[in-house]
Amino acid sequence: MEMNAHVHVRAKLEVRLFNKHGELIRDFGVVSEDAPVSAPSRKAEIVGYMLLLLAIAGLYHFGGLLTACLLIFGLVTNVGVNYEAAAFSNAGPPVSGLNFHDSGTGVTPAAITDTALVSPAGGPRVNGTQSSSTNTYQTIGTISYGSVLVIAEWGLFSASSGGTLWDRRVFGPIVTDPGDKIEFTYTCLFASGGI
Predict the structure, then answer these.
(1) CB count, 10 Å around CB of 123?
(2) What is the pLDDT of residues 104-160, one digit of tens each?
(3) Exposed/middle/buried for 151, CB within 10 Å: 0-12, 13-18, 19+?
(4) Which of 5, 38, 139, 185 could lock 14 by a disulfide, CB 3.0 to 4.6 Å apart?
């Protein structure tokens, strides 16, 4: 007997830029209202891919003027769902290992075949602070930059180097100065029920 199930996932990535003194420069207020995409499952093994569409609402308030809305694309990769499937069967590391934030300057659109960032910024990956609540997973990582960079991509990995790329996002550029930090908040909602 073959049994099929569906996993629905929605995610959002929030971005805030801080200067070297820890003062907030800009809150990009990223909000994702993507429609859930199901990944078919056979005997609890997840197969396929999930496509996530994010909208960065770079809204900030200066003298009553609301400004900017940037479109960002991101998705869970093939190697990411393979990692998750192995975790379900205890054949691989736990899903909680997907907690290392990295960023870069690459602008190539995200693809399900991605296994790394296109152009990593060069600093170490940051181990995020994880939390969960009813059907929601969140990890927050703050990355520091030592030079002027144009950050345009982000990824969530399973290790501090190498490892598996779970999700990659490409977004409108964020220019950093030496000492600036970007706080990345990745929130993933898992919805129950089938289609």
Answers:
(1) 15
(2) 999 998 888 999 999 999 899 999 999 988 888 899 999 999 999 999 999 999 999
(3) buried
(4) 185
For residues 100 and 128, the answer to whether their CB atoms sit within 8 Å is yes
Whether this prediction's pTM lies above 0.85 is answered by no
Among 54, 56, 47, which Cα is nearest to 74's? 54
Q: Do residues 137 and 97 make contact, with C-beta atoms less than 8 angstroms apart?
A: no
Backbone angles phi, psi at 135, to 5 degrees: 50, 20
Q: Which domain holds residue 53?
A: 4-191
What is the tally of helices (H) and strands (E) in the chain? 1, 16
Q: Which residues of 1-18 are buried (b: 16+ CB within 10 A; e: fewer)?
A: eeeeebbbbbbbbbbbbb
Please give the tally of structural domains in the chain: 1
Q: Are 13 and 74 within 8 A, CB to CB?
A: yes
